[in-house]
Amino acid sequence: MPTFVYMTRCNGCGNCVDICPSDIMHIDKTYRRAYNIEPSMCWECCACVKACPKKAIDVRGYADFAPLGHSVRVDRDEEKGVIAWRVKFRNGKKDVSLMAPITTVPWGSGQPQLRDVPAPTQEQRDSQHLYSEPETIRMDDGEVHTLKSNGLRMKLGVSY
Amino acid sequence: MAPKTIIEDNIDILVAGAGLGGTGAAFEARYWGQDKKIVIAEKANIDRSGAVAQGLYAINCYMGTRFGENNPEDHVRYARIDLMGMVREDLLFDMARHVDSTVHNFEKWGLPIMRDAEAGTYLREGRWQIMIHGESYKPIVAEAAKKSADKVFNRICVTHLLMDEAKENRIAGAVGFNVRTGNFHVFKSKTVICGAGGASNIFKPRSTGEGSGRVWYAPWSSGSAYALMINAGAKMTQMENRIVLARFKDGFGPVGAYFLHLKTYTQNGLGEEYESKWFPELTEMVGKEYLDTEASHLTHRPIPTCLRNHALISEVNAGRGPIHMVTMHSFQDPHLEEIGWHNFLGMTVSQAVLWAATDIDPKNENPELTTSEPYVMGSHATGCGAWCSGPEDVSPPEYHWGYNRMMSIEGLFGAGDAVGGTPHAFSSGSFTEGRLAAKAACKYIDDGKGEDIKVTNATLDKLKKEVFKPLEHYKLYRNEIVAGSVNPHYHNPRQFLDRLQKLMDEYCGGLTVNYMTNEKLLNIGLKKLAIMEEDLEKIAAEDLHELLRAWELKHRHRTSECVMQHTLFRKETRWPGYYYRGDAMKLDDENWHVLTVSRRDPETGSYTMEKAPLYHLEDVKEDALADKETIAAE
């Protein structure tokens, strides 16, 4: 399902151009609306479909193996923290609606600003700890694993 | 209009490519370097870039030590078995001992991880996999990286790493161009953490025409991780270890959740179980040490991914295809049916589209499986990548030269696909590797190792010319023809891509030759790649988009050359089901229980190949326990 853009819905805002990982959503110079310039490099990741405020972008299964007449639509909402899908079969016999969470916290609020947390001590720098360790490894006061703590060594040669 | 040169100077840490590995690096670097200048250069938009752009429905690498599920060494053993012994166990152990901390941070950031309500644990898909609602996995981790970085340059295609001109074999940054503005960007940096990706689309894909974007690994994975490092003269390892995937046909929909959680299974076109009948022949090829079906049955030792591929490929060749995934029984349970659909929508929408288009309801019909063309990457069931230093407290001397995840070039670090010998890191492990690399890079800077880097204007001028040459070449010769794409002076990137894919397929063990190659074929392939390199001087780009494709192609070409060299070097068939050396059809532990290491001399273009010793983790024996201190210090 390379993506395509409906002429009457697109307003040329460029959100899809901005987000496409493959750089294939471009603005047509004549119509000033977006289109897929290179369907054979489209992964059908739907980043553009999800980013379009006008719901102007849809997908049509790849011409070399997907028959016409199907539909997969998606609505992703960061504020509500959910994504909704609707899958319709070619023969009309199946019509599935599905919803899933995309975040458990208000969008963008969970990630820390590490510039503002207490700076690591020299002891931490010299240890094997990463940020938030050892606490976040086992969610208790257990230490980071070492060869010694786990009774291991590195042995040269063939073993299986 | 001539492209402007934009210089970003005095960078401490440059993250080149920000998928899961790169975002992990940028995030963690801020903690250990609160006063450091951290810059990200990414060819797309970090909110949706890299292999996880589309989302994931599982985190495939989680130990669960907090729930008493696994220890790091258990994962190392699993990866060792799956990769037929060829892994860097120091790097794997190091990743595995930190990966849970990464996942717990993700949960704090809002990534929805499913729970097993009764046990209170995360919901397991398999021994290493936990299930998530991960459609927004990438934007969630990108947010963390954006908070940490001083600057994020989206839409910068990094074309070259910059080498220091004051001190030999030391990194000094990177250059590239802005895909939108066409400006030339210079990043002068004390360290570079390469988070760029592995390679899809270097072997002729199974899909054709419009569908050739439907590859298993993202089409924007252009092997840049490898080409950037190889061109800089970094040592590479295990580049022969390409991967072939058994997946749902055409859509390449994932099978992990289907096998492990939904308990679906495969059968041949006659409705029979087929895998086990190929195992005696396989045991003959690889030895009982690697495939002992009785022991596997008793101990739940997994059958390596490549060997299961071999059974599928052989069964189809025997005329008993197609191979089906038996879904009908599981999908009668509405809960499992829903999971089956969510699984695709969260990570491979195409497979849902394809089933809708072909009216395949897995409740009433068992869908087909097939094997893919080969891919070159380093974080799934394969370990291509750079030869990196391991952590001081784990690595033996041959694997350790100072800083964790630093390559054979000073100040150049890696994460994710860039790091060699570390399969089964997946998303969480790649992010963890980025974190490890970032801490080490900060230490490198604090130790004063990155002082007084020097890049001359002459170098920058030369690189700038090279970067934009495809545009110039097009302008020069375009008007010699009336119209169209046939021109005696140049090929466009698409034409070159077809040429590369065809030759890799035919000479390096691709799909149409049933993954078969040999010394003669590989030598012909190398000759063809060398001629192609001459022609690449004449690659033409009509616009900036094609310039991006031109550089992706150059990166794919260099990656392919390295894969070809490594495949030629390892004279054995180590991974039947990934590829076969027809002139050495057996696994040969006597000569090849080693890691392959290559270096391409940037001056001459010639490769030096060597064998590096393999170390395996083993339990310290009972009688030695009393003297643990000494042994740990070994």
What would you say this structure looks like, in words?
The complex is a heterodimer of chains A (160) and B (634). Chain A is α+β, with helices and mostly antiparallel strands. Chain A folds into three domains: 1-66, Alpha-Beta Plaits (2-Layer Sandwich); 70-105, no CATH class; 112-151, no CATH class. Helices cover 12% and strands 24% of the residues of chain A. In chain A, the strands form three sheets. A three-stranded antiparallel sheet of chain A has the order 5-6-7. Chain A has a two-stranded antiparallel ribbon with strand order 1-4. Chain A has a two-stranded antiparallel sheet with strand order 2-3. Chain B is of the alpha/beta class and 634 residues long. Chain B folds into three domains: 5-200 and 208-233 and 376-438, FAD/NAD(P)-binding domain (3-Layer(bba) Sandwich); 246-371, Alpha-Beta Complex (Flavocytochrome C3, Chain A, domain 1); 468-587, Up-down Bundle (Methane Monooxygenase Hydroxylase, Chain G, domain 1), CATH 1.20.58. Chain B is 37% helix and 16% strand. In chain B, the strands form five sheets. In chain B, strands 1, 2, 5, 6, 7, 8 and 15 form a seven-stranded mixed sheet that branches. The longest helix of chain B has 26 residues, at 544-569. Chain B is globular. The relative contact order of chain B is 0.16. Strand 8 of chain A pairs antiparallel with strand 20 (615-619) of chain B.
